[in-house]
Write a structure and sequence with these properties.
The protein is mainly alpha-helical. It has a single domain, classed as Alpha/alpha barrel (Glycosyltransferase), CATH 1.50.10.20. The chain contains five helices and four strands, in the order E-E-H-H-H-E-E-H-H. The strands form two sheets. A two-stranded antiparallel ribbon has the order 1-2. It has a two-stranded antiparallel sheet with strand order 3-4. Strand 3 and strand 4 form a beta hairpin. Helix 2 packs parallel to helix 4. It is elongated and about 75 Å long.
């Protein structure tokens, strides 16, 4: 028979135990998960939610490295209906601040992002910014011309074989 608990469903099934079963062990458990990362992510978030909420700051790469976990935490908590108003407000504030901080590394007219204001644009950083900002539009306002100009710039960096030209050093290789 079936019964339900919060976010879980239990099904009991009668099974015939083999003749050589170990005494006093007539129980079998099977766990099936629809979301392979769900248990891991929820364990991390439930135990360490404050560790995932970070105030963005630094240069062009670190701002995004610190903004993205806020966004992904907001997306996950929203998806599982575990987002509290306080956490939502904090996450949106950090995402908004990350966006405003990253825009200071945006080259208007070119449509690309750089690690520092005085350095050339980075293809990797620009692509990462576009990815994060496209996902962010579900929660805060992102200037549409930034996204359109960024997409246009990225297309100019694409080779005929589909690969991209990286024209500046990536410092945080753990994110690439």
């Amino acid at each position: 028979h079936k019964h339900f608990e919060k976010h879980r469903q239990f099904n009991e099934i009668d099974i015939r135990m083999p003749a050589d079963v170990i005494p006093d062990s007539p129980e079998c458990r099977v766990n099936i998960g629809g979301n392979l990362m769900g248990l891991t992510v929820s364990a991390v978030i439930n135990d360490n939610i404050q560790d995932l909420i970070t105030r963005p700051g630094g240069h062009g790469e670190t701002i995004l490295i610190r903004t993205a976990p806020n966004l992904y935490t907001l997306m996950y908590l929203s998806a599982i209906n575990r987002l509290t108003p306080d956490i939502e407000q904090t996450l949106k504030r950090h995402i908004r601040n990350g966006y405003y901080g990253e825009i200071s590394y945006y080259k208007k007219g070119s449509g690309c992002f750089s690690i520092w204001t005085h350095t050339p644009c980075s293809t990797w950083l620009t692509a990462f910014a576009m990815k994060v900002f496209c996902q962010t539009t579900k929660f805060i306002f992102i200037e549409p011309t930034v996204l359109c100009d960024t997409a246009s710039w990225l297309l100019t960096m694409q080779n005929d074989n589909g690969s991209f030209i990286e024209n500046y050093r990536v410092y945080h290789k753990e994110m690439s």
